[in-house]
Amino acid sequence: MSLSLGVWIGDNDFINNKQLNEMQKLLSEFPESYFNSIYIGNEVLFRKDKSIDELLSYINDTKLFLKKINKSNIPIGTSEIGSLINHKLIDNCDVIGANIHPFFGGEDVSKSINWTYDFLKYQIEPQLKKVRQKPKIIITEVGWPFKGGSFQKSVANFKSFQYFLNNFICEAYQKDYGWYYFEAFDEPWKKIFYEDSNSWETEWGVFNYDRSMKEKIQFPACN
């Protein structure tokens, strides 16, 4: 088993440097085979914490560090909201993580699987034609909220959650894209993002925040 090493990049340079130093410590201490990839930042551009050039400077510095310690085979990139992934970002990464949430596409859950892969096909794949190197594209966030309201035709409830869990995972096994399901556990701290009657930000986990299984949720059995 290997892992993807994530490095938090925000608007605080002191914290960013602590994160990067810890990354370097781990990469120096453990074998290269332990690391599937490295993601420098998650949704940095979406939050406007750093410019794309600032983010790329962190990525390129990490590439130099890996070369220095003879571990250059580890792919390096970032994960970002799918709509903000552009050719400049792609051209400087070995791997690109796309956070794609069909819930915010506003369609009924029955259309969510096709919506996800259409987004990749029509929004992200065309960017690959504009770059010198072809990085690996990974779906780094995809899921559906368990409860908390609705967004246009997208409804956050148990039925839709189970539908998406079943159908996305079984379909994903037939595709060439790697993916990470969003998410394992509920995150109560995200209630700070509640707006009006929309309280879904805390409710994306397959498990409750205390690590217990959500009531009635079943893992899919794919053929």
TrEMBL record:
Membrane topology: Single-pass type II membrane protein
Membrane-crossing residue ranges in chain numbering: none
Any one biological process term the GO annotation gives: cell wall organization
Catalysis: reaction(s): Hydrolysis of (1->3)-beta-D-glucosidic linkages in (1->3)-beta-D-glucans
GO cellular component, one term: extracellular region
A GO MF label: glucan endo-1,3-beta-D-glucosidase activity
EC assignment: 3.2.1.39
SUPFAM superfamilies referenced in this protein's UniProt entry, alphabetically: (Trans)glycosidases (SSF51445)
Cellular location(s): Cell membrane
InterPro entries according to UniProt: Beta-glucan_modifiers, GH
Main location group: membrane
Keyword field: Carbohydrate metabolism, Cell membrane, Cell wall biogenesis/degradation, Glycoprotein, Hydrolase, Membrane, Polysaccharide degradation
Summary of the function given for this chain in its UniProt record: Glucanases play a role in cell expansion during growth, in cell-cell fusion during mating, and in spore release during sporulation. This enzyme may be involved in beta-glucan degradation. Active on laminarin and lichenan.
Similarity field: Belongs to the glycosyl hydrolase 17 family.
Descriptive protein name: glucan endo-1,3-beta-D-glucosidase
Upper lineage: Eukaryota, Fungi, Dikarya, Ascomycota, Saccharomycotina
